[in-house]
Amino acid sequence: MQIKKNIAISESGYIFNPSSGESFSINPTGVEIFNFIKEGKTYEEIEQLVLEKYNTDKDTFDKDYHDFIGFLKQYHLLDYGEKEN
Amino acid sequence: MEKQRYERPVIKKLETNMPNKYGLRTEYRPMTHIDGVEVTQLIQDHGSPLFVISEQTIRRVYREAKKAFATRYPKVQFAWSYKTNYLDAVCHVFHQEGSWAEVVSGFEYDKAIRNGVDGSKIIFNGPDKTEMDLEKAIKNESLIHMDHLDELYSVIELATKLNKKPKVAIRVNMDTGIYPMWDRFGFNYENGQAWDALNKIMRSEKLELIGLHCHIGTFMLSASAYSAAAYKLADLALGVKKKYNHDIKYIDMGGGFASKNTLKGSYLPGSDVNPTFDDFAEAITSALINSNFEPDNLPLLILETGRALIDEAGYLLGTVISNKRSSLGKRTTIVDIGVNILFTSFWYDHKVTPAQPFTQYTEDTTIYGPLCMNIDVIRDSISLPLMNKGDHFVIHHVGAYNMTQWMQFITLRPKVVMIDANSNVHVIRKGETIDRITEFEAIPKHLEGFEL
Question: Would you kindly state where each structural domain of chain B is located, as residue ranges?
């Protein structure tokens, strides 16, 4: 699972999909996770990074992460290539 | 190093020119304190959910209302509408401010007496007054506002029996140009019922006709309707003066003033568009002053407004139980406040403010209560800042009707606390316990014991 290569994201969380013309806004936690996925980090790595930085727990993060990924899928921002997991 | 506050990741598609029912973000700052007391501390000490009443706010709003009328009219008296919130502590604040009591049942009447209100300063409204209630009211020289002819005949009979001259008024209903017209209470002005009742009272010579009363509706968004009502009551009062040379001592305009809540379906927030006390006062007092009363012999103006005086002083604190998605992907948040304690969520889009810091990101959300019932919806559609499980929030303007119309249903009713001017917290109603509920029940002998 990867972020599609042509998707652009700004530091403030503005996302543009040039192939569809759609744009999105994500919050700072979303930007971090989005970039982690873009960098090819695994779920376990992302989880560890988030738990180190934020005052939350595994269960909450697990639920929120999959909810977030669900929306990235729905908005066609993900690419399922060789690295699909 | 201290960890940062977690906010769940969210992504929102940016769409232009797409109006929706969720509206825009309304919350910009968390409500961490109420009258100097920390919200999280209140919940820690008294549990969640928790009703909080601000004594200062009651007094401030009451004084604003009083000022709006007293600066326009020489004789003004407020009477606290017990049904709106009859917690004793709340009633005491209003009585300390000078309000009489306005009650609509024997239960409320007894509550006012127990609170120490002099019988002659209790206005007794409503269609259901038992003979026992009426006898008590007559003996205490309370102001009996009659709703129907059966009651009028009962009062005449009791006057003879007790050899007393009860102080009475009639409730008048009328067309004030609003919809729906409330015509179920009292005697109609336009079709002559009101005059019929007044003639019966005056001809009986057993009753002292002391006032005229109306209550034209609820959550009135038009002040001008009160002007029409005041003119019609003035017309009746002047007619009685002309016909029987009898002075009507007071005109009671009832209540029904809108509070600052936002009605469901309203495009703009109630705090911006609902009429103010000045608007209502201007409409009512102008009508009375411009009618043909002699300037030095104006009747006392009584007001029974409840909702507009107490709504703002009431807060309901709660906690997030869970964040979910609906089948269509819509965000839903479950909280520990149900419609059984927030009855007014059927009428209003209540303002909800998180009690801890949040960012500018929101999600279009439906807020559900904790009851296992489909009707338990606190907000259908709200652009809500992101809150985590266990976070607290404050629901605003819940002071009217929720603490009288609430139900013990599925769960127990919570505590009510009042914060005084010095930020001291007082429990004014204890939380319910299972023993308190079951002490009213009994199990017949043959139902005792079973095997499963």
Answer: 33-53+312-431, 55-311
